[in-house]
């Protein structure tokens, strides 16, 4: 039996409203937690809010309410946002709760009495003089300043001298290095681990773990004129919530015996990867197993900030894409761990392509076929269908492939594998053409195709459950399934569904969304080039042309000239609409390598979005696609 699993998010500052940056880490934690749960592990997921410190006291003062009232209100905003996103945490810790305050006092008392290996006090008092930025809640060095101001808060830091209690960080840095090198403390991805080792080599100074000048905080038991430094207060949440100093059995279960994982972004790496393990070691507590430090994202190429006013409210995204759509879109923008860009402009296109077109369409076409030909009942399996053995193998491998990615925090890859299977299954459905089997009375074959598709839908509903729990439950109920069979183990077997089970689908699982701005595709060109009609080379160079592989093709309903194509551009998949249906059938064009203009504005053609344009040669009534000469992989640039 695998160890219990304990995962945390940072606790968020309540002076900021929840935005999609906070949502990103919280959704990721929820997904990891749900995945390990369906894999049969005992799990605990903690999130919460960071409520002490000058910044928050200042915000409360601005709002003209007592600090705690301000915090209570903001905490509700976080809880509401998390509920709207179907985040299922086990506990929500507030640093103003008495259980947390008690644990922090205890933790500090233990450290106060602790000695380093060479017999020095871990905590000592000293005077500190420095430049303090209230925005950062920390002392800055001259080097940190730009034009004498804190670059993050654009204010001149205050010169401050005060008595502080210091933590002897220097005594613990070599020990942390040892734990990292021995693998006892894993810092992921490797790039972040190297960054931490680099910081250790810089011999960071000791840090002060109390503040005299801050009033909104937890007073130290050994000197009530001081409150705990916000980072000491905040980091302790990871143990206060699970019974540190209060409930030994609980603490033992979720800290000592469990695999402990902290998720965060790189902005708070130093506190988590150095201060926190050092304090734990000083207090005689085991260090966490893994720190996963993900990147920071921009939105449509811009840094997200309050000042720029471009922070996206997760509630707005939920209103547009639902909780599941939002979770899916946020997690599939770029690989988890790296920095990336969230392409909000493409959300609708991606939603329609991956969810409405691929996944939603698979469910609806299979259920419709079963309705029309099998009395709404899951038919009998039938193995003798070309390509079925390979498809079955791929489906049976999905649970382990995706779970292995999850264990390595590779969220995007785990999700992509499931979507890939959906696409392959759609192609299988097209290739088998069950509607022709029905016409020809090949009932066994028809049943075999539909049974296989149902099984794959079921398997996908398990693997994608951690990402889209509500929609996957909806899909499962279409197949007459409830949560009792929602385990990863069941995703490893192919023949689970009982023939004869009724299927029913009322509404589309992922109704297509209308793009906000409809772009007229006719005559959009504004390339008013020079008077002789010749293009400057820089004008031509604006067009980005790439090789694409056609994954799937179908006729656009009610438009006999148009084909809707799903194409692979190497790094992404897209949908385009092309007026080639009179010259190429869906079967002919599927699998072809074509050339596509990739940087056109999205367009809507006969109600279907198109994200690109293919190249074709036309003469008279003849049309032929422009194709690369020889083997060229999808994504290859045309220059
Ligand atoms: O730092 N990209 O809280 P905080 C990715 N209270 N993640 C982002 C992001 C972005 N653009 N913006 C925010 C604090 N995040 C402390 C933590 S923990 C003991 C105390 C996420 O409200 C990411 O997880 O500033 C980041 O680490 C966190 O929000 C910072 O949240």
What's the arrangement of secondary structure elements?
Layout: E1 5-8, E2 12-13, H1 20-38, E3 43-50, H2 54-62, H3 67-84, E4 91-94, H4 98-112, E5 123-133, E6 138-140, E7 158-167, H5 173-182, E8 186-188, H6 190-201, E9 207-208, E10 210-211, E11 219-220, E12 223-228, H7 230-235, H8 237-240, H9 248-256, E13 259-265, H10 269-282, E14 290-294, E15 297-299, E16 302-303, H11 314-331, E17 340-342, H12 347-373, H13 388-407, H14 411-432, H15 434-439, H16 443-463, H17 469-478, H18 537-541, E18 545-555, E19 563-568, E20 573-578, H19 586-589, E21 593-597, E22 603-605, E23 608-610, E24 613-614, E25 616-619, E26 622-625, E27 637-638
Parallel strand pairs: 1-3, 1-13, 2-3, 3-4, 8-14, 13-14, 15-17
Antiparallel strand pairs: 5-6, 5-7, 7-9, 10-12, 11-12, 15-16, 18-19, 18-21, 18-27, 19-20, 21-24, 22-23, 25-26
Helix pairs in contact: 1-11, 2-3, 6-10, 12-14, 12-16, 13-14, 13-16, 14-16, 16-17
Bound molecules: ligand ME8.
The site of ligand ME8 has 20 residues, from β2, α1, α7 and β13.
């Amino acid at each position: 039996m695998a160890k219990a699993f304990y995962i945390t998010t940072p606790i968020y500052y309540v002076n900021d409203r929840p935005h999609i940056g906070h949502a990103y880490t919280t959704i990721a934690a929820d997904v990891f937690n749900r995945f390990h749960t369906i894999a049969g592990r005992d799990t605990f997921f903690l999130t919460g809010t960071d409520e002490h410190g000058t910044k928050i006291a200042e915000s409360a003062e601005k709002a003209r309410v007592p600090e705690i009232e301000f915090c209570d209100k903001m905490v509700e905003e976080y809880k509401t946002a998390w509920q709207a996103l179907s985040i299922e945490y086990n506990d929500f810790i507030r640093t103003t709760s008495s259980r947390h305050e008690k644990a922090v006092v205890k933790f500090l008392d233990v450290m106060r009495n602790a000695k380093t290996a060479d017999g020095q006090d871990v905590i000592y008092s000293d005077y500190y003089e420095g430049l303090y930025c209230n925005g950062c809640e920390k002392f800055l060095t001259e080097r940190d300043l730009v034009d004498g101001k804190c670059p993050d808060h654009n204010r001149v830091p205050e010169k401050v001298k005060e008595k502080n209690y210091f933590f002897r960080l220097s005594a613990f840095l070599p020990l942390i290095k040892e734990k990292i090198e021995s693998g006892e403390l894993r810092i992921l991805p490797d790039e972040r681990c190297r960054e931490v080792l680099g910081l250790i080599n810089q011999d960071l100074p000791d840090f002060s773990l109390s503040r005299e000048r801050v009033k909104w905080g937890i007073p130290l038991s050994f000197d009530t004129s001081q409150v705990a430094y916000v980072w000491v207060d905040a980091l302790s949440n990871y143990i206060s919530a699970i019974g540190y100093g209060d409930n030994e059995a609980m603490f033992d279960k979720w800290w000592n015996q469990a695999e402990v994982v902290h998720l965060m972004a790189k902005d708070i790496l130093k506190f988590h990867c150095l201060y926190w393990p050092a304090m734990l070691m000083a207090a005689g507590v085991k260090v966490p197993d893994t720190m996963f430090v993900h990147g920071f994202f921009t939105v449509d190429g811009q840094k997200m900030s309050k000042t720029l006013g471009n922070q996206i409210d997760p509630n707005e995204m939920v209103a547009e894409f639902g909780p599941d759509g939002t979770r899916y879109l946020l997690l599939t923008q770029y690989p988890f761990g790296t920095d990336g860009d969230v392409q909000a402009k493409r959300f609708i296109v991606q939603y329609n392509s991956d969810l409405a077109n691929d996944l939603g369409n698979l469910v609806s076409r299979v259920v419709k076929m079963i309705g029309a030909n099998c009395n709404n009942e899951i038919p009998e399996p039938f193995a003798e269908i070309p390509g079925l053995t390979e498809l079955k193998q791929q489906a049976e491998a999905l649970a382990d492939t995706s779970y292995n990615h999850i264990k390595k925090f590779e969220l995007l890859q785990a999700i992509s594998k499931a979507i890939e299977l959906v696409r392959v299954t759609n192609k299988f459905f097209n290739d088998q053409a069950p509607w022709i089997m029905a016409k020809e009375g090949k009932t066994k074959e028809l049943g075999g195709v539909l049974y296989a598709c149902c099984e794959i839908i079921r398997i996908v509903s398990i693997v994608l459950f951690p990402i889209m729990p509500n929609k996957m439950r909806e899909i499962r109920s279409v197949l007459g399934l409830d949560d009792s069979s929602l385990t990863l183990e069941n995703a490893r077997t192919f023949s689970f569904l009982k023939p004869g089970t009724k299927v029913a689908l009322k509404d589309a699982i992922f109704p297509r969304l209308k793009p906000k701005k409809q772009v007229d595709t006719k005559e959009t060109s504004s390339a008013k080039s020079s008077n002789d009609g010749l293009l400057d080379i820089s004008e031509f160079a604006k067009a980005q042309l790439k090789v694409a592989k056609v994954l799937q093709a179908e006729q656009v309903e009610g438009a006999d000239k148009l084909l809707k194509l799903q194409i692979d551009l190497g790094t992404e998949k897209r949908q385009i609409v092309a007026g080639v249906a009179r010259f190429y059938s869906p079967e002919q064009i599927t699998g072809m390598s074509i050339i596509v203009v990739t940087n056109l504005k999205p367009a809507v053609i006969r109600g279907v979005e198109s994200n690109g344009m293919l190249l074709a040669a036309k003469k008279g009534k003849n049309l032929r696609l422009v194709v690369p000469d020889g083997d060229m992989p999808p994504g290859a640039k045309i220059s």
